[in-house]
């Protein structure tokens, strides 16, 4: 059952880095199939710059986006970074072609991924490094070994996980403190409801990927009516619902369009009533 929360606009990652809850995901600033560089690199850089100018101080990327090109693009567009900008990246996948994402939890690969991200992003410290997936070929204790080493060396500040269940979070927590979880979750797909509740109880950030999905066709008229009432788009209502769902939810809608960027960020100004929220949560 979905809960409701006051729509606070900021959240502290790891209890010490305060960021705006409406961030930006860089995955769409790549080629087709998340393969290769952004087709229009100059526009892509402008989108990133416009996001930061509009108040975004949380950007999510991964070494596998491109691969590598997305991290390089972010550095080219934004470095030297504003002091309050948190760039989160991920490692643990390889790329063998468009839309192909083999999991690689080999500790050697993880170590190389961390060092590569630091170099490409031009960072001395990654504020939030996330394990992209668990690899069944390697115990997660081994996979996270180089991450623990990087934390001790001051190269990683905080650690997160992606697409995990509660048992996996608890297992990883025995190795290194976990401050965030990035799972598929949106208005139309709530399969990770129990993970969201767990993270909320533990004070961890929950970062839904694919946040703009607005649900099945049967919800369309309901969402359209609420969108009309707020003078908003369906996508904006989907984002506003997530912001109201739990105060630890951080949003990273991605786009390669300046117009859509503006629309997405405006979702933060929409205050759904409890009645609207309940209607959408049925």
TrEMBL record:
Residues in NADP-dependent oxidoreductase domain copies: 21-281
Superkingdom in the source lineage: Bacteria
UniProt xrefs under Pfam families: Aldo_ket_red
Keywords annotated in UniProt: Oxidoreductase
GO CC annotations, alphabetized: cytoplasm
InterPro entries reported for this sequence: AKR, Aldo-Keto_reductase, NAD(P)_OxRdtase_dom_sf, NADP_OxRdtase_dom
GO MF annotations, alphabetized: oxidoreductase activity
CDD domains membership: AKR_AKR13B1
PANTHER family hit by this protein: AFLATOXIN B1 ALDEHYDE REDUCTASE (PTHR43625), ALDO-KETO REDUCTASE YAKC [NADP(+)] (PTHR43625:SF40)
Listed name of the protein: Aldo/keto reductase
Organism: Dyadobacter luticola
